[in-house]
Amino acid sequence: MEVSGTSVARKSVLLVLFVPSVERDGVTPVDQDYWVDEALETLGTVFGGATAYPRAKGIWRDDEHGGHLVRDEPVVIHCYTSPERIEDEDALSELGSFCRRLGREASQGEVGLVVGDEYFAIRDFSEDGRGWTED
Fold first, then answer.
1. Is the model's pLDDT at 135 over the cut of 50?
2. Closest Cα partner for 113 from 123, 101, 122, 105?
3. What's the CATH code of the domain at 75?
4. Number of domains in the chain
5. What pLDDT is attached to residue 128?
6. 55 in a domain, yes or no?
7. Which terminus of the chain is less hemmed in, N or C, by CB atoms within 10 Å?
8. What is the DSSP secondary-structure string of the chain?
9. Residue 129 lies in a domain
């Protein structure tokens, strides 16, 4: 595709990552600025770029803790990539490693990731775990 004589790369797959503001307990704050910067750097390196949007207002039901509702003000990060890149094993490995580290170090119950039109509830935060579970 060309726009005004300039070659344009098409990235048609939207990846959305939610960076939490609180730990699983719903009270203890996480270092959100740190995690937003880490996410932007990871997505920029792996997929070519990303944009973080200001804090949103959200809620998550923690079914493993009696359905407790955790109120959160996540930063929502959008990243567009190509269908080929989102299927690349190395890229997915780096993305999975980052999401598991975020979940583990920020004491989360779940890390939310949207790829295309699918939501992935990442709950296995072990360093060697797959960590991808569809809901």
1. no
2. 122
3. 3.30.70
4. 1
5. 77
6. yes
7. N
8. -EETTEE-----EEEEEEE-SB-TTSSSBP-HHHHHHHHHHHHHHHHS--EEEPP--EEEEEGGGTTEEEEE-PEEEEEEE-HHHHT-HHHHHHHHHHHHHHHHHTT-S-EEEEETTEEEEE----TT-----B-
9. no
- What values do phi and psi take at 127, rounded to 5? -65, -30
Asked if the structure places residue 108 within a domain, the reply is yes
Mean pLDDT of 66-79: 97
pLDDT at 44 over 90: yes
- Both tokens assigned to 94: 């780096």
CA distance 96 to 111: 10
Q: How sure is the predictor about 56, in pLDDT bands with cuts at 50, 70 and 90?
A: very high
Residue ranges making up the domain that contains 72: 11-122
Q: Residue 11's pLDDT is what?
A: 95
Specify if 78 maps to a domain: yes
